[in-house]
Design brief:
The chain contains eight helices and five strands; from the N terminus they run H-H-E-H-E-H-H-E-H-E-H-E-H. The protein has a single domain, classed as Rossmann fold. The radius of gyration is 16 Å and the shape is globular. The longest helix is centred in the last third of the chain and has 20 residues. A five-stranded parallel beta sheet has the order 2-1-3-4-5, with helices on both faces. The chain is an alpha/beta fold.
Length: 187
């Protein structure tokens, strides 16, 4: 396939997946995060690979973009993927599946929110964090794709991108974080 044909087809398939984003679920996420902000609750984010990048970007958009220069209360937000020394110590000394849950154990309180991002929905470290969060009184949100893996069943608020192609799933997750972040930045 020639590059122009490939990119055109990829774009068409991505647009189709993005048009099918569950906007009711995204609207509910906005309301959930607004309540967390108003209540002084902390929002935690986690994911691996591209999902780690989305988690960091989402935390940045809420923590800086939607908080600085406003008269509203600020978002208390923390990306669990950004403390590399702590993560690598946990992975090395315990197990990679512990890198998010151990951080949550140090910081999370009942009523806080965990946004777990996993394209497959089967990342062991993400699932372990969601299980702990569910049993510890946190509200859990799972961003995933199709079929959604275990995350779609574990998360109290699952949001699925209607695709089984990792690139299109990540495109959807990135758009969701911008829909949410810019809702608060442009109000």
């Amino acid at each position: 396939m020639d590059p122009k044909e490939y990119t055109s087809k990829y774009l068409d398939l991505s647009i189709a997946a993005l048009k099918e984003l569950p906007l009711d679920a995204v609207s509910s996420l906005i309301q959930l995060l607004d309540e967390a902000r108003r209540s002084g609750r902390t929002i935690f984010l986690c994911g691996n690979g591209g999902s780690a990048g989305t988690a960091s970007h989402f935390a940045n958009d809420l923590g800086k973009g939607a908080s600085c220069g406003t008269n509203r209360s600020r978002f208390r937000v923390m990306s669990l993927v950004d403390n590399i020394p702590w993560m690598t110590a946990l992975a090395n000394d315990l197990d990679y599946s512990e890198i998010f849950v151990e951080q949550l154990k140090s910081f999370a309180q009942p009523g806080d929110v965990l946004i777990a991002i996993s394209g497959s929905g089967n990342s062991p470290n993400v699932l372990k964090a969601v299980r702990w969060a569910n049993s510890s009184g946190l509200t859990t949100v799972g961003l995933t794709g199709l079929p959604g893996g275990e995350l779609v069943r574990l998360a109290q608020h699952p949001i699925q991108v209607n695709s089984n192609h990792m690139g299109r799933i990540e495109d959807g997750h990135f758009l969701i974080q911008h829909l949410v972040g810019y809702f608060f930045m442009e109000q």
